[in-house]
Amino acid sequence: MVERRIRASIVTVLLASSLVTVGGGPASAACAHPERTLGEIIDSGDTGSTYSDTLFVGRVRQLRRARDGMVPARFRVRAVAAGHAADRVTVWGADPDDNMSMSEEVVFRDGGRYVVQGHKLRSGGFTTSACTHTRRISRERMRELLRRIRHA
Fold first, then answer.
1. Is residue 77 classed as helix, strand or coil in its secondary structure?
2. Within 10 Å of residue 86's Cβ, how many Cβ atoms?
3. Each residue of 18-51: pLDDT tens digit?
4. Residue 18, C-beta contacts closer than 8 angstroms, at least 6 positions apart
5. Is-contact 33 69, C-beta < 8 A?
6. Measured CA distances, 133 to 5, 66, 104 (Å)
7. Residue 93 in contact with residue 70, Cβ under 8 Å?
8. In what helix (H) or strand (E) does residue 78 lie, and over which residues does it extend?
9. How far apart are CA 95 and CA 19, in angstroms?
10. What pTM was computed for the model?
11. How open is the CA angle 27-25-29, to the nearest 5 degrees?
12. pLDDT per residue over 4-13, tens digit each?
């Protein structure tokens, strides 16, 4: 039941984000550009989105077993640039083994560093999609973003 609501939330994000088709990224066939650049979000502390209203930098500490095509990834949050997130949060991503997953869903990797723009659920977890600024990042990029967030 909870998984269906989470999947429905992700579909809502995708539908809201896919009004314009643009080129360039892996999810470009169905995504519009995010409303603000990553730098603008960090500088203002606001995503500019009424749906994906939180942006943080963190690392996946645990991937749990997939349910209904979704994988709950447990994150350690290093810094929050917009919105609110606890030190440890769950972000729902796509199951890489599920052939029914949509291309706009994010697949998280254990130990991976990410910038995550997401929608906070009532449960305290988050949903996200590749149509947001959610991306896997390098160690160097993480350090750069942490410095920028802390000095914003």
1. strand
2. 11
3. 333 233 344 444 566 667 899 999 999 999 988 8
4. 30, 31, 32, 104, 131
5. no
6. 22, 23, 12
7. yes
8. strand 70-82
9. 25
10. 0.76
11. 40
12. 555 555 544 4
Structure tokens at 149: 């967030």
Side-chain half-sphere CA neighbours of 67 within 13 A: 12
Q: Which residue has the tokens 């995010």?
A: 34
CA 107 to chain centre: 10
CB-CB contact of 129 with 14 (8 Å): yes
Q: Which amino acid is at 65?
A: R
Tokens representing residue 72 in the block: 């709950």
Residue indicated by tokens 């009532």: 122
In one letter, which amino acid is 96?
P
